[in-house]
Each structure stands twice: as structure tokens, then as C-alpha cells.
Amino acid sequence: MTTSRSIGLVTAQKAVFDTPITLSSGVTLPRYELVYETYGTLNAARSNAILVCHALSGNHHLAGRYREDDKNPGWWDNMIGPGKPIDTDRFFVVGVNNLGGCHGSTGPSSIDPDTGQPYGSRFPLVLVRDWVETQARLADLLGIDCFAAVIGGSLGGMQALRWTITYPERVRHALVIASAPKLTAQNIAFNDVARQAILTDPDFYGGDYYQHGTVPRRGLRLARMLGHITYLSDDGMGEKFGRLLRSGEYKYGFDVEFEIESYLRYQGDKFSDYFDANTYLLMTKALDYFDPARHYDGDLVRALAATRAGFLVVSFTSDWRFSPARSREIVKALLDARKRVSYAEIESKHGHDAFLMEDEAYQAVMRAYLSNIANEVHA
Question: Which region is the signal sequence (predicted)?
């Protein structure tokens, strides 16, 4: 049995695309760049590649570290590496920072070659289907005609689902984790409140804060605090923080008193230090707009009719942001469309964030499904 171990030091790469891309909004970008990382070795048949799509605040840095003293490995380091469920001894894994991101790929903070200034408010909205098209172009550059699997959690799961619809011949398996076929009205409402926190920040300047030397930190901080509440479960928060007071007694004021308040403010402050507000707006709008059944009169079965992939759909019992019921909608549509699908509903207290956690049952499901894919590849 292979022993799990660290993937070690990794390096990000950059791909430059001079072929224009016309986005779903109708806007054409004449040129763009994508930052990506790869782990493992692409086999001679180029059949063992896995694409991992990131969620709202994720990026291309999936696993490993940039330096020996780096305390923060990639965001899915517990899942990706030698001997881990996404086994880099068997798979060639690709992670991409999506177009519109703020970790090196062309986005609102990038320099617009036409003006010499950051794109800012002029950067167009980007939909999930646009990300999938740019990911396919990167796959072409890497010589990958077909992915053994496309995997993603949350917004990443939406990308995996879209891959099977847009490029059915280019993906053999899709792992859709803690995701949904479209957002509920409640989810759209949460996203809008988060965006309003940013849009109404005096330091936002209509999205052109780069030229003003400011950051809409207050708005981004509030947006992250709100979002983080929805990523956790009530039981999880209760178990971890309860009603614990930092000083053990009431202070009769509006400063931080409860441990949960301290935690949320810490998360908000940390996020506002490294994430771009314009990118946050773009990512949440892409979530709102995702609805692959929209062009099929709302019929998800018809939307999935041409897919060829095998599917693994995973949900978590305490996830109320993307509840198990939403995953079961995907499963039912796939079954009604007579597609191959496996479903796992994992007991967890971690809420929506459970897809990022190291959970024995969750990892066992992932390992078993991916081991079968590896056996297909190496048969």
C-alpha cells in the first residue's frame, strides 16, 4: 500500500494566449494569461490528466509549498499528492487560477495594454462557461485531449459539471462536490449583500481603486465575514465557539467580546489582505449566473443529455449553503438522463467548508472512485 506523503516544493507557471476570446457577455479580450500548476507526470498516452477547478476564493496552488519554510501548503494539500486520494504517482494534476482571478491570471488588477492602467471597472464579467473554455485552451497547450477527470468543490463543482456539457468528449469522469445545479434565491441574496458591502465602501471608487492607491478593505472584510458564516454549520460554530467570552464577562460595548466575533474579524482581516475586491464581485456574479438548464427551458435532464462522463456527486449533511438536496437534484437529473452516477452523502459538522477538510469517510469515497479511474487509465 502506498504511503501518503508531501508533494514537496512546487512552482507556478504562466501561459500566454494571444488568440482573442469572446466572453459570454459579448466582450472580447484580445489577449490574456493564465497561471497554473501541475503535479505528477503526464503519461505517454496523455490519458492520466486531472483538472481541479477552484472555488470562489481558491486559486491554482492546490498542493505542496513554494518554500521549505512555507507554513501554508496548497488549499487541497490533504487530497493531492503521492499516495493521497488524488494520487500524483498515478495522475498528472492541473490547477488553474481562473480568468478574472487575482493570483496571476489576467483579471481586474492586471494592466490593460490599451490604457497602461489596471482594468479595474472595465474588466468584463466572466461566466463559468468562459472559464471552461479557457481551461480547454490550456489543456490544448499542454497536449491534453481528454481529462481522466475534472474535479471541483462548490463553484469548482459547477465548472466540472459545465465541462461535461460543453466538452463531453474531453472528460471521462466528473467529480462534483458540495455543489448545485444553480443557486437558490437565498444564495443569490447572500451574494448581493456581500457585493453591496464592497460596492458601497468609500474606498471602492467604482472599481477603480487601484489608481487611487486605496483598497475597499472594509467592504471586502464584511463580505468575507458574511460569506464565512454561510460556509460553517450552526453545530460546528457552537461546538468550537459557543457563547464563549474573550474576557469571561460582559463589557457592555460594541467591541469584540465573543470568541466567534474575534474569529470572524480575523478571517475578514486576513482575506482583505490578499484577495482583490473586484475579483470577489466577479466570482460571486459567476455563481449567480450559473444555470446550465437555462437554455433548455429549465430542464436539467436535457442539459445533461449529451454528457458522456461518469459522475461522482458528493454532499455533506451539515452544508446548508449547498445542501445535500441540491446535489440530489443533480443525481436525479443524471439518472433520468441514463448517465453513470455514484452519490455519497457524508456525515460532517463542518458545513460547506467540509469539502476542504480532512475527513476519513470523505477521503475514502474519493480514494475509491479515483483508484478505479487510475485502474482504467493504466489498464
Answer: none
Q: Which of 61, 319, 348, 359 is catalytic?
A: 319
Indicate if 319 belongs to the active site.
yes
**What is the distance between the alpha carbons of residues 68 and 27, in angstroms, rounded to a whole number?**
42
Residue 345: its H or E element: strand 341-346
pTM metric for this prediction = 0.96
From 179, 315, 352, 359, active-site residue: 352
- Annotated binding residues, written as ranges, equal 224, 353
Catalytically annotated residue among 154, 179, 315, 327: 154
Residue 317: name the closest of 354, 367, 369, 360 by CA: 354
CA distance 379 to 140: 24
Which amino acid makes up residue 211?
Q
Chain segment 335-352, per-residue pLDDT in tens: 999 999 999 999 999 999
Catalytic status, residue 350:
no
Q: Can 154 be counted among the known catalytic residues?
A: yes
Task: Give the residue from 50, 136, 141 showing the smallest Cα distance to 89.
Answer: 50
Radius of gyration (C-alpha) of the chain in whole angstroms: 21
Binding residues for substrate: 224, 353
DSSP string, 134-151: HHHHHHHHHT-SSBSEEE
Q: What is the pLDDT of residues 191-211, one digit of tens each?
A: 999 999 999 999 999 999 999
Residue 379 pLDDT: 63
